[in-house]
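Figure 6 in text form: structure in, sequence out.
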């Protein structure tokens, strides 16, 4: 920690200047949209936002309506109502996250200059303005929600022995982060290990501290994040039940469809391929022996099928796992199965029962599954490890962090004006249709250079700081009993966040090698970048380990 410091007023002034510059940089960027080209992703959330603003929840029911968790659609609706450009709104969320982060770690970051450094490191995170964030997609805010949960729970842990009124606000913020992340992405479960382990450690500290008062209340309050998350989940489930008649967050990764597809992946097959969980020979058996599945042949495997041409991979000669289930749902839409949510649930339940009967008659079948992911096999181990190693290097070297996009938005299909008007943001389409006429101004190019320059600073500092942080964490646990309470908690926090980052990388690596094979994509690793930053900056705090902690004044 630096000995020289700045006063609070100076720090606040500099922070405000940093915020203004950050928002100006965000305002210089332009969103990247391709109307009607991403029906499963960007288009879906945009359509949901429009429906929400119109008072129709997620719109007319079809095979996509409950296919993903809806919070990003809600967020876009709120952006529309505020009138703030969507990319500026995203940047404002990063600023708020930076403020909460500084507040959370104030007990261990005790100089204004270092707090300012922490704040700047968070809000100028290159992954907050990288080219993938120009898309109108949920991964532009999902990392913010995850990091809010991590830092807020850390803020509570660092205040375990303080007044309850000082620690409780962080439990509420942790609940907001966990709850909103949970209803944003189907893999929100990846936050649970941190929650369970962190709360368990904190409860142990509460129990063993003989001088701590109100232990029962403090332990009871540790359930606040879970309660808030449950409220968010139940609210969405109730809305879905009100409008579509099914009490669920999603009818895609949960319920009868997931059970049906999971059972399909349990059937034995002749030729295993890591990207194909339900190969053609398995589908042929189901066409022959599952009455409800026969009608899918004309859409999935007939030579002239549009779904076959659009979803089947020509190199593999079959459907990748991640493409087959979307192809099946689209085929079900064509067959009229998705006229109502209850009707769709009943159909997939019936088909699941038929496939289960086929599985029971298959001597080589795997145990029954209820998941969209393919069965985990030994053959995945080395490819997933290889992808995870590459992804970790990809993260710490800040690859694919360019602040603008050369690819222009598609204006041929129309719809650009509707996106721009609704989200109060300009799209980076060419000034002259069908030409490469320059569409970025000199000021925009200047801003892009500033952001790209910041990225190079992160690239230069990340690996050295990570090595220092790793040394600090190891040293802390070696000298654990000599550490102050705050240092012990910080050691646990940094270790936990490190494991969470690795866990996230392995989740994405498995999906990459088992379902989509699209290559390493920074967008899906977005939640890891803030973790890396926090470990780098806060790891330096652990270098100084005084024999006795000074009393902290709130």
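Output sequence:
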């Amino acid at each position: 920690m630096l000995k020289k410091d700045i006063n609070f007023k100076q720090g606040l002034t500099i922070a405000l200047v940093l915020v203004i510059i950050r928002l100006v940089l965000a305002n210089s960027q332009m969103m990247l949209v391709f109307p009607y080209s991403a029906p499963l992703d960007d288009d879906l959330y945009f359509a949901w936002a429009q429906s929400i603003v119109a008072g129709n929840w997620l719109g007319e029911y079809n095979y996509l309506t409950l296919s993903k968790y809806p919070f990003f659609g809600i967020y876009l609706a709120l952006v529309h109502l505020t009138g703030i450009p969507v990319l500026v709104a995203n940047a404002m969320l990063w600023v708020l996250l930076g403020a909460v982060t500084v507040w959370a770690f104030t007990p261990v970051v005790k100089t204004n200059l270092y707090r300012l450094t922490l704040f700047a490191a968070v809000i100028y995170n290159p992954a907050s303005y990288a080219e993938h964030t120009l898309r109108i997609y949920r991964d532009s805010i999902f990392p913010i929600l995850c990091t809010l949960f991590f830092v807020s729970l850390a803020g509570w842990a660092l205040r375990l022995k303080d007044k309850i009124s000082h620690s409780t606000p962080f439990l509420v913020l942790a609940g907001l982060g966990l709850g909103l992340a949970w209803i944003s992405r189907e893999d929100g479960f990846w936050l649970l290990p941190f929650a369970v382990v962190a709360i368990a450690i904190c409860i142990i500290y509460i129990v063993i501290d003989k001088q701590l008062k109100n232990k029962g209340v403090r332990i009871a309050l540790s359930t606040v994040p879970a309660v808030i998350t449950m409220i968010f989940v139940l609210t969405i489930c109730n809305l879905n039940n009100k409008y579509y008649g099914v009490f669920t967050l999603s009818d895609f990764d949960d319920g009868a469809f997931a059970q049906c597809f999971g059972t399909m992946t349990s059937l034995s097959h002749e030729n295993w391929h890591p990207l194909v969980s339900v190969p053609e020979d398995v589908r042929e058996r189901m066409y022959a022996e599952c009455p409800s599945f026969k009608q899918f042949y004309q859409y999935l495997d007939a030579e002239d099928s549009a779904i076959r041409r659009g979803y089947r991979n020509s190199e593999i000669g079959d459907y990748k796992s991640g493409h087959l289930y979307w192809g099946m749902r689209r085929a079900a839409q064509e067959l009229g199965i998705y006229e109502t949510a209850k009707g769709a649930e009943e159909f997939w339940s019936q088909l699941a029962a038929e496939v289960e009967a086929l599985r029971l008659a298959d001597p080589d079948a795997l145990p029954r599954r209820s998941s969209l992911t393919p069965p985990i096999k030994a053959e995945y181990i080395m490819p997933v490890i290889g992808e995870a190693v590459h992804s970790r290097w990809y993260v710490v070297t800040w690859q694919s962090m360019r602040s603008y996009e050369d690819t222009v938005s598609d204006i041929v299909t129309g719809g650009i004006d509707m996106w721009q008007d609704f989200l109060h943001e300009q799209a980076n389409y060419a000034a002259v249709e069908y030409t490469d006429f320059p569409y970025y101004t000199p000021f925009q190019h200047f801003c892009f250079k500033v952001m790209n320059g910041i990225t190079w600073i992160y690239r230069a500092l990340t690996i050295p700081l990570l090595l220092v942080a790793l040394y600090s964490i190891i040293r802390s646990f070696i000298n654990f009993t000599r550490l102050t309470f705050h240092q012990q908690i910080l050691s646990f926090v940094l270790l936990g966040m490190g494991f969470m980052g690795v866990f996230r990388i392995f989740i994405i690596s498995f999906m990459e090698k088992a379902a989509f094979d699209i290559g390493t994509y920074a967008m899906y690793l977005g939640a890891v970048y803030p973790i890396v930053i926090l470990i780098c900056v806060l790891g330096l705090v652990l270098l100084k380990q005084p024999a006795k902690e000074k009393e902290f004044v709130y």
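Caption detail: The CA atoms of residues 411 and 429 lie 7 Å apart.
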